[in-house]
Amino acid sequence: MNPLGFAVVVGLLVGTWAQVDVLRPLCDSPDVEEAAMAAQDYLNGQHVHGYKYALNRIEDIKILHRANGVDTYVLEIDLLETNCHVMDPTPVANCTVRPKISTAVEGDCDVVLEKIAGVLNVTAFKCKTDESREDECEDQRGDCSDLLPLNHTLALDFVQASLATFNNNTVNKTYTILEVGRMSSQVLLSSIQYSVEYVVVEANCTGNACIPLNDPMAERGFCTATGVKAAHSVDCRMFPAPMMPVVDANSTVAAAPAVPPMVHVHTGSLSHKHGLRHHKLTSLHDPHLSGLLSSESGESAEVVPVVPAVVDAAAPVAGPAATADPAAAADPAPAADPTPAADSLSTSESSNSKEVPLHIFKRDVVAVDALVPVAPPACPGRVRFFS
C-alpha cells in the first residue's frame, strides 16, 4: 500500500474509533445487572435440553458507546444450573441452584447485547459448561454421589423401572420418557443406590410400545427416583399445559408449537471431558460479532478497539496512566535508563512541572499507594451463590 493510501486508511480507522467510548462501569451497577439478567433469560430460552441456569456472578463488562446512541454491552457472566427443567414454567428466581456436593454445573458465558432506545437485545454469545464439585468428594469418600453419563446402561434400566412404578400407580394415563436429565449413583450398605431425574410425557401405548402423544396439550412432568431396581421411590410433578391453541378472528386454530423430541439420551463416548454427564448450554451464537467474544474458554481472542479515555488537563494527576500529554503517554522514557529521561524532561521546552513526578511515581509505586486512595475494583461483581 502506498503511503497516501495507508494514511487514508489510518485516518478512517481513527475517525471511526473516535466515535466510540469504551466505558467500564461497576459490575454490580443496576444498568449492568439489567443486561446480565437479560442475558440469563435469553440463554435459558436457547437451552432446549436439561435445566435452567441462574446468574451467579458478573465477571466483567465493557460498554461501547457510540455517537448514534447505540450501546454495545460485552458481558462475561457465570451461571449455575438450577433444579428446574427448561420445560418447567417456574421463574428462574424461584428455582433452587444445585449445590456443589451434588455436582453443580457451571456455565461461563460471553454475551454481546445491544441497547437501542432503552431496549436490550442479545446479538451474540459463547458459553462453556463444566462441572464443579466439593473437594471432599474428589476422594470418593463421605456422603457424595457420583454423577453418571447420560447413557449409563444400568442407570437407564433403573429409570425404566421407576417409570413402570409410576405408571402402575396412575389411573387412565400412561407416560413415557421424554428426556433423562441427570443420573447418579452411591454405594450404600454394599449396594449401588441410584438417583435419577427425567421428564415424562403422556403417551399412547400398545402392548409394551409407547409413543408420545403428538399434541402440544399432552401432559408432561418431571420425575425423581431413588433406590435400586427392585425397591425404589418415585415422585413426579406435572407441569401446566405448555401452550393453549391460539384461535384467530376467523375461528381458525393457529399452528401449535412443535412437540419436543421423544427421548434425548447421549450416546457414544463416555469421556467426562465432553460434558456427557450433564446437558450443556448452547455453546455459540455469533452471526457477526466474534471479535467481541472472549470467554474463559479461550476459544477466541478479544479484538475490541481500545479508545484512550479523555483526560481533563486540569484534573489532579493520579498515576502514570493519567497524563495530560498524549505524546508522553504513548512514548514513555525507557525504563532501563531513567536518568537521561529525567534530564530531558527538565530541559525540554514542552515539558511542565506536572510531567516530572509522573516518572518518579513509575519508579516508586509505594509512593502512589501512600498518597492516592485505592478504589475498589469495578469487576468482578458479587457472588450470589458460591464460587
Task: Describe the structure in your own words.
This protein is an alpha+beta fold and 387 residues long. The protein is built from seven helices and twelve strands. It folds into three domains: 138 residues, Roll (Nuclear Transport Factor 2, Chain: A), CATH 3.10.450; 114 residues, Nuclear Transport Factor 2, Chain: A, CATH 3.10.450; 46 residues, no CATH class. About 31% of the residues have low confidence.
Write the layout of secondary structure elements.
Layout: H1 3-17, E1 20-23, H2 30-46, E2 51-66, E3 71-85, E4 104-116, E5 119-132, E6 146-147, H3 153-168, E7 175-188, E8 191-206, E9 209-212, E10 220-227, E11 232-238, E12 284-285, H4 326-330, H5 338-347, H6 356-363, H7 365-371
Antiparallel strand pairs: 1-2, 2-3, 3-4, 4-5, 5-12, 6-7, 7-8, 8-9, 8-10, 10-11
